[in-house]
Amino acid sequence: MKILHQDAKAGELKLMPETLDDLWHLCNLIDEGDLVFATAYRRGEEKSDKLRPDRLDKVRMRLGIRVKKVEFQQSDDVLRVLGVIEAGPQDLGEHHTLMVSLGEALSIIKPEWKQQHFDRVKRAVASSERPSVYFVAIEDTDAVIAAAREYGIKEHATITRNPGGKMYESKSNEEDYLDEVVEKLRITLHGEPLIILGPGFVKEALARRLREKQPGIAGSISVQHTGQAGMAGIHELMKQGIGGKLLEDLRVAKETRLMERLFSEISKGGLFVYGDAQVASAVRAGAVETLLVLDTKVRSSAADELLRNVENTKGEFMIVSSLHEAGRRLESLGGIAAILRYKVG
Asked: Looking at per-residue confidence, does 170 or 80 come out higher?
């Protein structure tokens, strides 16, 4: 994410998203009621003296809309900002959806910029300076290539060997299978770190093949043993906290480790609370060590007040993405939970 302009007096911040992670950050940064400016295409206004209106071409214009809703999907390359046109050359008061793409600047004007908003912008800027981490989770019959994003793990490709159906191309020997994986990695990687994982010995064979056929396409290669392959193997890696420094700094890995710790406390009846009422009570008592809040829930004024109170009592908080497994586990607890310093009554 690039910060292009900031006007504290007007409450305006102009940003340019550069990665899919940035679109996710913007989705969580833009709140209902914000005024967002971006370029858009709408049909030009027709002349009033025409008896028979022509179908007009869409023209590029800069619009400001008062936000009603924001939408982001992992599979999309755009962010949708829905609202009512409040500023622009035409159609004031009409509904419009801004389609924010990578490399396109937008301005956000808020009635109040809170600390959590600034923290989100800092995270987006910092994450754009770090290389993504890629994974190949491989076993004898399947290989999954995925990348770590701020919002979770995004699957890029699956290569299947001898699946036993006519729909799939047969890859009868290991060399052909590994060469297919290496070719997919050649297309995908541009110097980022790579973690190869899975059960058995095929992961070591892939690492050797990759160094032989395409040396230098990965910034570094780490080979890790897991009991499973596929996306399940990647989640296992996250939960175990293995993978060295590469995983320590990943947002999704931190969220996963905290959720593992929370569920460990729950399983032994230890230092935990979850649900709105119980968490609010623990925050008031100053007992919260780490507050965990789902990103879809943090927009509420009640959640904002909890974050402020936790910080005031020297606690920490983590806003957990709803787009990966840790977020889904937190959602099952009502979207909010806390790891405690001590038990509360």
From this structure: 80
Q: Which two tokens mark 243?
A: 């993978």
- Residue 35 has a CB neighbour count (10 Å cut-off) of 18
Q: For the purposes of burial, counting CB atoms within 10 Å of the CB of 283, is it exposed (0-12), middle (13-18) or buried (19 or more)?
A: buried
Give the pLDDT band of residue 162 (cuts 50, 70, 90): low
**Taking Cα atoms as reference points, which of 297, 295, 288 lies closest to residue 319?**
295
User: In one letter, which amino acid is 252?
Assistant: V
| Burial of 21: CB neighbours in 10 Å, binned 0-12, 13-18, 19+ | buried
Range of the domain at 163: 134-249
Task: Output DSSP code: residue 203.
Answer: H
Backbone angles phi, psi at 276, to 5 degrees: -55, -55
User: In terms of domains, do 203 and 272 share one?
Assistant: no
Q: Is the pTM of this model over 0.85?
A: no
User: What contacts 205, CB < 8 A, 6 or more positions away?
Assistant: 174, 178
State the sign of the Cα–Cα–Cα–Cα dihedral 256, 262, 265, 271.
positive
Whether residues 17 and 122 fall in one domain = yes
Out of 128, 143, 176, pick the residue that ends a domain: 128
- Look at 244 and 295; give whichever has higher pLDDT: 295
Length of the chain: 345
DSSP string, 13-32: EEEE--SHHHHHHHHHH--T
Buried b (16+ CB within 10 A) or exposed e, 119-156: ebbebbbebbeeebbbbbbbbeebbbbbbbbbbbbbee
Residue 345 falls inside a structural domain: no
DSSP labels, 276-333: HHHHHHHHHTT-EEEEEEETTTTTSHHHHHHHHHHHHTT-EEEEEPTTSHHHHHHHTT
SS3 168: coil
DSSP 75: T
Across 308-340, b (16+ Cβ under 10 Å) vs e yields ebbeeeebebbbbbbbbbbbebbeebebbbbbb
Q: Round to whole Å and give the CA distance between 302 and 297.
A: 9
The domain tally of the chain equals: 3
Residues 164 and 193 in one domain: yes
